[in-house]
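Example record

One chain of 213 residues, shown exactly as stored in the release files.
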Amino acid sequence: MDCAEAFLRDQIPLALRTFIPATLKTAYEAAALLIKDEPILNVTSAQDNRGRIIQWAVDLGFERLCMSGQWPFDFRWRWFERPTGRYLEILPSHSAVTISQVADPSKQPRDVAFRANKRLNGQGWLAGLKPEGEDAGGAPHILLFHGYQTLNFAHLGLPREDQQKGYHYRSPNLMLLPHVVSSPEPPPEDTDIEAVVTLKEEIDKWRRDNGDQ
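Predicted structure tokens for this chain:
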């Protein structure tokens, strides 16, 4: 286990990951039912944008998951770099989670500005590099990404700064997780714990020094 995997386990433990498959399945089912019962959403142009309905249903599912306390995280709605709309950002203690649909689970989502900035702002921590400059820094970015149109996979990943190089670490397929965890996770190695504690301390110090929330 490397630092990226240990950090992801710290931020979103297995017990919390088990909520992901059910939340996604419920959202996909709700989107399918809405589309089926609404003629406007069955016109060809709407069918071509079915992913938008899924996206909204998934956002609602995870917003409710946080509001219910089942996921003990704050969340907020952030404007895209060009303020044409907003996206959901979920906030574990030392990271920021966003949600995307992808066709290929081995690849990062398409390279839009807000994702590029999150990679540049946060991933230096995982490469062992402290942020520098006024615009650098911010918490590491975790992607929750799931199947486009068909819910055949879902993963958590820590994206690399270079969008073409994938992930520092990507979880196994979360759709294969049991809904109930019958036993606790095996503890990480002491060296992994030390690395994660050090990383979190460095993020806390950067926040204090730069007023970053």
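Notes: Helices lie at 3-11, 14-17, 19-37, 44-47, 50-67, 113-122, 190-210.
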